[in-house]
UniProtKB/TrEMBL annotation:
<feature type="region of interest" description="Disordered">
    <location>
        <begin position="1"/>
        <end position="28"/>
    </location>
</feature>
<dbReference type="InterPro" id="IPR015510">
    <property type="entry name" value="PGRP"/>
</dbReference>
<dbReference type="InterPro" id="IPR036505">
    <property type="entry name" value="Amidase/PGRP_sf"/>
</dbReference>
<dbReference type="GO" id="GO:0009253">
    <property type="term" value="P:peptidoglycan catabolic process"/>
</dbReference>
<keyword id="KW-0391">Immunity</keyword>
<keyword id="KW-0399">Innate immunity</keyword>
<feature type="domain" description="Peptidoglycan recognition protein family">
    <location>
        <begin position="89"/>
        <end position="224"/>
    </location>
</feature>
<feature type="transmembrane region" description="Helical">
    <location>
        <begin position="49"/>
        <end position="70"/>
    </location>
</feature>
<feature type="compositionally biased region" description="Basic and acidic residues">
    <location>
        <begin position="8"/>
        <end position="25"/>
    </location>
</feature>
<keyword id="KW-0812">Transmembrane</keyword>
<keyword id="KW-0472">Membrane</keyword>
<dbReference type="GO" id="GO:0008745">
    <property type="term" value="F:N-acetylmuramoyl-L-alanine amidase activity"/>
</dbReference>
<dbReference type="GO" id="GO:0008270">
    <property type="term" value="F:zinc ion binding"/>
</dbReference>
<dbReference type="GO" id="GO:0045087">
    <property type="term" value="P:innate immune response"/>
</dbReference>
<dbReference type="InterPro" id="IPR006619">
    <property type="entry name" value="PGRP_domain_met/bac"/>
</dbReference>
<protein>
    <submittedName>
        <fullName>Peptidoglycan-recognition protein SB2-like isoform X1</fullName>
    </submittedName>
</protein>
<keyword id="KW-1133">Transmembrane helix</keyword>
Length: 247
């Protein structure tokens, strides 16, 4: 009697089943490779790190911006730093009559206003020449009613000084300093040395506590209108256009 399945058929079927399993394995393998193992935790930590870094940068920018705004607001009324020393000439160095001693001293107080004028005279250069000019200006017995003067070559000359009030502008005499630019500036601008020395004088006046930090600069006419002097000094942040004389 012959078996129902011959050994040959059984072997061929077995080989066929193996081939099908292998084919299934090769078909499944690419599917596994297309979908790698889930790495959600790594991506989550990476995202949090990036977001944290961006927030830190943003907060740093806000802090720095706020700080710069505060510094800018505080410095709006402050003269820029100047490295050059002040060239100062005391009254004793130029006044041959020593007439300033006739005036009484007033209490030392910080002034809050600087009044800019011109002397309406010729210009001068050097201590000797300017001293001659200043002495000639008071030869008629009239005391120079300026607190300080600035020469075209960049020197500060003491007149009334800090503790004597000028009577040129009675409205401001108590709280103001009168700073005169030697010369006439109706047709020409003051020299760069003269403007620089005025800035140095004002800066030193603040540091020596003669002048309030939040002071005003006012331009006033005495005889002729110093148009180009006012144009130059109006560039300073302390310039008060409303209180200054206009052409």
């Amino acid at each position: 009697m012959q078996p129902l399945i011959s050994p040959v058929d059984h072997e061929s079927r077995t080989n066929s089943y193996r081939a099908e399993e292998e084919n299934r394995g090769t078909e499944a393998t690419p599917l596994l490779q297309r979908f790698p193992r889930y790495q959600g935790n790594d991506n989550h930590y990476r995202t949090r790190a990036v977001v944290s870094l961006l927030l830190l940068i943003l907060l740093s920018g806000i802090v720095i911006g706020t700080y710069l705004l505060i510094i800018q607001s505080r410095s709006e009324n402050v003269l820029p730093p100047i490295e050059e020393p002040e060239r100062y000439v005391s009254r004793l160095q130029w006044d041959k009559n020593k007439e300033v001693n006739q005036l009484n001293l007033v209490p030392q107080l910080k002034k809050d206003t600087v009044i800019i004028v011109q002397t309406d005279t010729e210009q001068c250069d050097g201590i000797k020449t300017c001293s001659m000019l200043l002495n000639s200006m008071q030869e008629n017995g009239t005391l120079l009613q300026y607190n300080f003067l600035v020469s075209p070559d960049g020197e500060s000359f003491e007149a009334l000084g800090w503790r004597r009030n000028s009577i040129i502008f009675p409205k401001y005499s108590t709280n103001a300093l009168v700073l005169a630019f030697i010369g006439n500036y109706t047709q020409e601008a003051p020299s760069s040395a003269q403007v620089m020395q005025a800035k140095i004088f004002l800066e030193n006046s603040i540091s020596q506590e003669h002048l309030d930090l939040n002071f005003n600069i006012i331009g006033k006419k005495t005889k002729e209108f110093p148009k180009y002097l006012f144009i130059e000094l109006s560039k300073l942040p302390q310039w008060n256009k409303q209180l200054s004389d206009m052409d």
